[in-house]
Amino acid sequence: MRKAVFLDRDGTINEEVEYLDDLGDLRIIKGAYKGIRLLNHAGFKVVVITNQSGVARGFFSEEFVNQVHGRLSYMLGQRGAVVDRWLFCPHHPEVGSPPFRRVCRCRKPGIGLVEKAASELDIDVEGSFFIGDSLSDIRTAWNAGMGSILVLTGHGKAVFDSLSDEELCQIDFIAHDLFDASRWIVQGRKR
Ligand SMILES: [Zn+2]
Fold first, then answer.
1. How many A from CA of 95 to the centre of ligand 1?
2. Which of 7, 20, 51, 150 keeps 20 to 30 A from 144, CA to CA?
3. Which stretches of the chain score pLDDT less than 50?
4. CA–CA separation, 151 and 191 (whole Å)
5. Which domain CATH number covers 39?
6. What is the 165 CA–ligand 1 centroid distance (Å)?
7. What is the distance between the alpha carbons of residues 191 and 18, in angstroms, rounded to a whole number?
8. Distance (Å, rounded) from C-alpha 120 to C-alpha 112?
9. How far is the CA of 128 from the centre of ligand 1 (A)?
10. Is-catalytic flag, 10?
11. Which of 10, 133, 137, 172 is the catalytic position?
12. Which domain holds residue 12?
């Protein structure tokens, strides 16, 4: 079994844009290329898991989300950074109309997509990590029993300020950005 690093998308890999709906708005955050390359070279599977309730809200289609992932994959790949799998949840429990308005297991902090990736890529979940800029990312890590890393890009700084001391203690590492987070993992989790 391989270890994996699960990544959030908006605010972790690319600059946060509320309900991104234009491919031209995609900007990769500084440190993301290098961070993902580091994980690739260290032998981790890299899996992106993102909540895209904009689909349920009718802001954009599932096809558009796939186009965004194709574009990000291309941008990252040009600088040698490879994502093994892009997975997203298009649902919302209360907003929009069926089939996308529903309670699901794939919306973070649910672990449906972690389990999907784990079975498809033969991943050792307990030896893996989740890196993200929101509390739902951290809770996904906790729910799946893997390491949790909060990045201070995207909403990360505001999330950091809003956390209780008890929550902060349970986060394995607070990182400046994706590169800082990846370096910490690759160097063997030394604080
Ligand atoms: Zn879902």
1. 12
2. 20
3. 191
4. 15
5. 3.40.50.1000
6. 30
7. 33
8. 12
9. 22
10. yes
11. 10
12. 4-186
